[in-house]
Amino acid sequence: DVVKKEKPSVVNISTTRIIKGSGFGGHSQPPLDPFRDFFGDEFIERFFGQTPKKEYKTQNLGSGFIISKDGYILTNNHVIEKADEIIVRLSDEREFTAEIIGRDAKTDLALIKIKDHDELPVAALGDSDKLEVGEWVIAIGNPFGVGQTVTAGIVSAKGREIGAGPYDDFIQTDASINPGNSGGPLFNTKGEVVAINTAIYSPSGGNVGIGFAIPVNIAKSLLPQLKEKGSVTRGWLGVMIQPITKELAETFDLPSEEGALVADVVKDSPAEKAGLKRGDVIISFDNEKIGKMKQLPALVAATRVGSEVKLKVIRGGREKILTAKIERLAPEDDMLDDEAVKDGLGMSVQNITPDVARRLDIDPSVGVIVTIVERGGVADLGGIRRGDIILEINRKEINDVGAFRSETGNIKKGDAALFLIYRDGNTFYRVLKVYK
Q1: What single DSSP character describes residue 332?
Q2: Helix, strand or coil for residue 226?
Q3: Which of 108, 169, 380, 388 is catalytic?
Q4: Does residue 108 have an active-site annotation?
Q5: Which of 182, 269, 284, 348 is catalytic?
Q6: How many CA atoms within 13 Å lie on the side-chain side of 8?
Q7: Cα 197 to chain center, whole Å?
Q8: Which helix (H) or strand (E) holds 250?
Q9: Is 91 part of the annotated catalytic residue set?
């Protein structure tokens, strides 16, 4: 009964993106070009001059669901990001062109809209806070592009962190979720949307019973901003924090493992101006108790810019009250310059600006920052993300875009290039395989 009632509100989404230019990696070229594959770009350009820049289309598939009779549809940001055309197909096979109303990369949510339609079926939004582990749920979406598909399972866990960002708070389910389900709804047995299907854990690429969905209450809190402004404004405190382990609690002489340990304070940030110091433990933010570290980023983000908040901290075994004035968290786009260097690996990079360095608390003279990663390109398949800092390529230090351009210029088709990456306080290697 739930499926029969709610299935019409679920839509299939297909996007088209136009990519310009040649280059190695195989993703910007036509799928079959024996002459180019045999001789390579370098040979062709040396003997025939610069190869002409062409346009090629890439497509992406996903799902979504209608949330209002006037055509608003909720989906994942990664489904529609960088799309030049978005086509929405309803369950009755009607098709509409959609426009992007708003999107938020940090929570992977997007709001799109279709026009020139008759009255539309609407999915009711439930309350994800009331969802219980073990409760039955139903997923409807477009897995692998085969068409609208229904799967069922239970809520396996709540509050999961999967490394997707600072606001991780996923619902885990064993309802079968696969590529193409992204952006589709997860219903409870009352027929209410309780989550938005977003990611899977899968060594094979298919479903293994571990899927993740964004709680619908997060989407409900962001919808007004997405609809009115097209983006989300968040508060910023300017601290690097970490969870408190049993060992840390003993070392800092803390009464419990509750709170968020300040590992560092960003220069000139609201935190520094409030007097926060490295080693402080934040146990309360604006009268909200901080039990687990991950609560703090969400509370700060939801605080109105310009608000003054009270911070209760433990310093040297004693409680202390500080007052901080919350500033606006700059979107990633605001922290980046317009100029960026694009390479044939399917990504763009730029020099690290002073503001980026200050916000990320990194040395501005080391590395370049990744500004764009083309979906399906060499960098994407190699695990590079937007916002990563590239420190080395093939063990050669990268200090600026000139060094980056020089080293990537030495990478040939068939090579496996070793990249040293800094991301979210961690440094690690990635191997990028450049396809023949």
Answers
A1: G
A2: helix
A3: 108
A4: yes
A5: 182
A6: 11
A7: 14
A8: helix 246-251
A9: no
Q: Which has the minimum average pLDDT: 44-58, 95-109, 182-196, 292-306?
A: 44-58
Q: Quick one: DSSP state of residue 145? A: G
Counting every residue, how long is the chain?
436
Cα separation of 211 and 172, whole Å?
6
Cα–Cα nearest to 66, from 147, 7, 116:
7
CA atoms within 13 A on the CB side of 24: 23
Cβ within 8 Å of residue 190, ≥6 positions away:
2, 126
Query: 258 and 276 in contact (C-beta within 8 Å)?
Result: no
Exposure of 122 in the CB half-sphere (CA atoms within 13 A): 11
Exposure letters 336-369 (e unless 16+ CB within 10 A, then b): beeebbebbbbbbbbbbeeebbbbbbbeeebbbb
E strand or H helix at 408: helix 401-409
Written as six digits, the tokens of 116 are 């020139």
pLDDT of residue 135: 97
Catalytic residue check, 9:
no
Q: Are 17 and 60 in contact (CB under 8 A)?
A: yes
Is 426 strand, coil or helix? strand
Average pLDDT over residues 330-344: 56
Q: pLDDT digits over 16-50, tens only? A: 987 655 443 333 344 444 444 444 444 445 444 55
